[in-house]
Amino acid sequence: MRTRLEALALAIAVTLQGCSLAPVYQAPAVQLPAHFAEDAGPWHPAQPADTVQAQWWKAFEDAQLDDLQQRLLHANPDLTAALAHYDAALAYAGQLHAGLMPQVNASLSPVRQRQSDRRPLRSGTQPSIYNSDTAGFSLNFDPDLWGKIRNQVAAGDAQAQASADDLVVARLSLQRQLATLYVQVRGLDAQSRILQTSLDDYTQALQLTRDRYEGKIASALDLTRAQSQLAEARAQLDDVNAQRDLGEHAIAELVGAMPGDVHLAQNAQPLKLPGIPHALPGSLLQQRPDVAAAERRVFAANANIGVAKAAWYPDFSLTGLLGGQTQGSGNLLAAANRYWALGPLVNLPIFDGGRRSANERQAKAEFEEAAAQYHSQVLKAVREVEDNLGQLRDLQRESDDQHAAVDAAQNAEQMAMSSYQAGAASYLDVVTAQTAALQAQRRLQVVETNRLQASVGLMAALGGGWKSG
How much of the chain is in helix, strand and coil states, percent to nearest 5? Predict the structure, then answer.
C-alpha cells in the first residue's frame, strides 16, 4: 500500500511539473498608425527579412566618422559599464536556472572535542575527550510543482534580454551623439571657410576704402565702417573656433580619450546626405532596442505574477543525506558507521498577516506599470520618427529657399560694391550688402548641418537606419 501511495505521489508531482500560475502572456496591444504622417510616399508593410545596417553611420561615407565610431565601441567607459551591467544580468539569470537542478553538497568534519563532566545523561564510561569524524553527501531538490522557480527563471531570462537591449540602447545613443557632434564640427568647419573668405573680401574692401580715404574720395566714416566690419567678422570666426573646440572635446570624451588627445583635421567638404526611402514601414519600430527592452520587462512582470501566486500553495522539497561517522578510527563507509535519511519536506502557508496577498497585488501592479511604460516607449518611438521626418521635409524646403536667398544676397553685394566704386552708392550700402550675404551663407550652412543631424536622428529613431536598395 505504501509503495502505491509513493508511486501516486510521484505521478502527481511529474504531472504538476508543467503547471504555471502565471497568466497567459500577450504583448500589450498598441494601435499603430497605418503609415507615418510625415511620410509622403505610399505605404508598404515591412517583410520579415528586412534588416538594417549594423554600422548605419557609413551611409554618410566619411572615413573619419567611421574611425571615431570604432574608437567609441572599443573605449567608451559608459559603454563598458553597460556591458558589465548586461554580464551581471546574465549571471543572475544563471543563478535562477540553478534552482531547477538538484543541489548536492559534500561535507567533511574531522573534530576532536571534549564534553562537559556535568553533561546531562552522560554515562560514566563515556570519555571526556574523543574524536568525531563525519563525511557525507546531502541532496535537496524542489520539484517546483506550481511553477514558481520556472517563472523566476523566465523572468530572469527576460530581464537579461532586456539588459541586452539596454546595451544596444546605450550603444546607439552614444553613436548618435558622436555622429551629431561630428556633423556639427564639420558644419563649423564650413562656416569657418565662409568667414575666412569673407575676411579676405573685407580686407580688400578695407584697403580699397583706405586708398579712397587717403585720396580724399571716401570719408572717415566709410573707413571706420570697413574696419568695424572686418573686426566683427574676425570675432565671428573666433566664436566658431571656440564652438569647434567644445565639439572636439565632447567627441574626445565619447571615444574615451582626453580632450588634448583628439585633433580633428579641418574639413569643409560637405558630408553626403543619405537618401530616405519613399516609404518607411511602421514595423521598422520593432528594431528599436528600447521598445524591445520594454516588451521584455512586461514579460518578466507577467512571470512574476506566477511567482506571487505560487506562494499560496504548499511548497514541496525532497531532501536526502548519506554518509558515515566514526569516533576517530575505523572505516567511515563501513556498514555500522553509515547514516542516511530520505524524505519530503512540506511547507504549508497558513497565516502571514496578508503578506502573500499584498505581494500578488504588487506583482499585478508592476505588470500594469510595465505595460504602460511599453506603451509610452512605442509612442515615443513613433513621435521621434515623425519629428525627424518632418524636420527633413521642412529643412529641404528651407534649404531651397535659403539657396535663393544666398544667390540674391551675393548679387546685391556685387552690385553695391560696383556702385560704390563708381561713386553711385555709399559705403554703408556695401557694408549692409556684405553683411546680408555673409549671414545668408552662414544660415544656409546651419540649415545643411541641421539636415544632416535630422538624418542622424531618423536613423537612430528607427533603431539604426533602414534597408537600402
Answer: 60, 10, 30
CATH number, domain of 27, equals 1.20.1600.10
Residue 324 pLDDT > 90: no
In a domain, 468, yes or no: no
pLDDT per position as a tens digit, 155-190 = 999 999 999 999 999 999 999 999 999 999 999 999
Cell numbers given for 32: 499603430
CB 307 within 8 A of CB 151: yes
| Strand order from edge to edge, sheet including 129-141 | 103-114, 129-141, 315-326, 338-347
Residue 416 in any domain: the answer is yes
Which one, of 290, 286, 280, lies nearest residue 468 by Cα? 280
* H runs (alpha helix) in 122-275: 148-214, 220-254
Grid coordinates belonging to 316 = 514541496
Q: Which helix (H) or strand (E) holds 308?
A: helix 289-310
Mean pLDDT over residues 244-257, rounded?
95
pLDDT band at 63 (very low <50, low <70, confident <90, very high): very high
Closest CA to 102 of 72, 139, 136, 68: 139
Residue 12 grid cell: 502527481
What grid cell was written down for 256? 574615451
Q: How many helices (H) and strands (E) does the chain have?
A: 8, 4
Confidence class for position 39, pLDDT limits 50, 70, 90: low
The model's pTM: 0.83
The residue range of the domain holding 268 is 19-103+146-315+355-461
Determine the straight-line distance between the first and last CA of the chain, rounded to whole angstroms.
74
Nearest C-alpha neighbor of 172 from the set 91, 56, 89 = 56
CB of 92 closer than 8 Å to CB of 152? no
- Report the percentage of the chain scoring pLDDT > 90: 54
- DSSP code at position 278: S
330 lies in a domain? Answer: no
15: pLDDT strictly greater than 50: no
Give the separation between CA 31 and CA 256, rounded to whole angstroms.
Answer: 41
Q: Is the pLDDT of residue 11 over 50?
A: no
Q: How many CB atoms lie within 10 A of CB 467?
A: 14
C-alpha triplet 138, 142, 143: angle, nearest 5°: 130
Domain count, the chain: 1
Whether 132 maps to a domain, the answer reads no
What 3-state DSSP class applies to 319? strand
